[in-house]
Amino acid sequence: MKLVMPPAVRLIIQELETNGYEGYAVGGCVRDACLGREPNDWDITTSASPEKVKEIFGHTVDTGIAHGTVTVLIDGEGFEVTTYRIDGKYEDARHPTEVTFTANLLEDLKRRDFTINAMAYNDSTGLVDAFGGQEDLRNKVIRCVGEPEHRFGEDALRMMRAVRFAAQLGFSIEERTRRAAVKLAGNLVKISAERIREELVKLLMSDHPDILLDAWDLSLTRVFLPEFDAMMERGSGETAVKALRVSGKDRIVRLTLLLRDINNGSASCAEAVAQLLRRLKFDRDTMKKTAVLSELSFEPVPDCKAGIRKLASRLGDEQFDRWVCVKEALLQAGYVPGREEAGSDDPARLSAVRELYAQIRKDGDCLSLSELALTGTDLTADGMKPGKQVGEVLHRLLEEVLQDPARNTRAYLLQRSRELRMQQP
Ligand code: ATP
Ligand code: MG
Fold it and tell me: pLDDT > 90: what percent of the chain?
């Protein structure tokens, strides 16, 4: 079997061989190349020690020297070259306490998580597949290398990786691997929120986000997303998953579809969503956008341009298209909108709203305080005392402009601001 590798990878392997060492492309890139998918990155494994790798290649960076990884730079592009290694005992189901370098490729492949991730390749030897990775690729199966209970016991993150790969590749999880995950799901508590978040996002953004149901079935969500288990009990989990399946691959849209219904007793939907995303260590921007979109996903579909402008201004930048996507996905998933969500069950009205919003953008209508033709400084220059009232007046002015964008002129707004101030106590 011949796989096509990028020239730089071939060069690195050749150079290692010329110096008397072995070198192979390994892991995800071999898996993806076998599947005819474009690999994210090409990792190389070698019998040479990290010091030798540094000697052989002029330009290197010590990326993870303790674990045997050196980044080799070829024409400015980095390739991770890692010395064959055996992972020592895992004390906390997270990190091996020590790693030992070895000259034996098979030992290195044995430490890897799944058979499909444990294959190596170079042009001189061809494919090295000691654990049936090819067959599992053919049968579309995720299977642990070795004894699943032992492997999940060593590193609990592998259970998340199993469902993530199943979702990315459209594979199923092999029965013994499954049973081991069910048994050891509780160990996930030992894994950091950041690492769980990364796997969850990859799962959600994959071609098969409905594999989330596998994570639930394996009792994994019970540990990192118990809110989803509660949704499954209430009957809203399945709808969320169906909506995920039909939605476009936007991170905020997919997080919203997953979380809008968590309803954990917090004051508001936005607060509940923000709290959960904070727990999973999401960045502030994602947290804010998802929280707002979740909350406003329960709003009715507007029936006029003024209504659209109002909603768009509450949603903030770039979010209106997402809002329509959320509504459309829910509709396709058979979600039954509440009475207060008027118009949300009408696909024609949703596409009309999309068109009207495009016009609003094209016309450059003002949708936010920053686009208002009058600023807080203008108001204080006009004699208003700086303070809370300035903001209040600006908000009132924005509301009027959202009703009718022709009002967004300095002269009109200044005059209106004076009238509003007169009315204020
Ligand atoms: P991706 O396409 O997402 O990068 P990948 O298979 O390359 O997928 P990485 O996380 O980049 O995944 O890891 C590279 C390789 O290292 C894997 O293919 C696997 O062989 C091994 N590996 C990674 N994480 C683990 C782990 N937790 N336990 C065992 N082996 C692992
Ligand atoms: Mg990778």
Answer: 90
- Domain containing 82 equals 1-130
Question: Is 164 touching ligand 1 by the criterion CB < 6 Å?
Answer: no
| d(C-alpha 97, C-alpha 239), whole Å | 43
Does residue 168 sit within a domain?
yes
Question: To the nearest whole number, what is the mean pLDDT of the chain?
Answer: 95
28 lines ligand 1 (CB under 6 A): yes
Q: How far is the CA of 28 from the centre of ligand 2 (A)?
A: 5
Instruction: State how far the alpha carbon of 127 is from the alpha carbons of 3, 30, 186, 329, in Å.
Output: 9, 9, 36, 43
Residue having the nearest C-alpha atom to atom 27 of ligand 1: 158
In terms of domains, do 256 and 355 share one?
A: yes
Residue at a domain's end among 318, 339, 365:
365
Q: Which residues of the chain have pLDDT under 70?
A: 90-95, 266, 425
- Report the nearest atom of ligand 1 relative to the CA of 161: 27
C-alpha torsion 93→96→97→101, nearest 10 = 170
Rounded to the nearest whole angstrom, what is the distance from the C-alpha of residue 278 to the centroid of ligand 1?
Answer: 26
What is the rounded CA–CA span in Å between residue 140 and residue 80? 28
Same-domain check for residues 14 and 113: yes
Residue located nearest, by CA, to atom 5 of ligand 1: 28
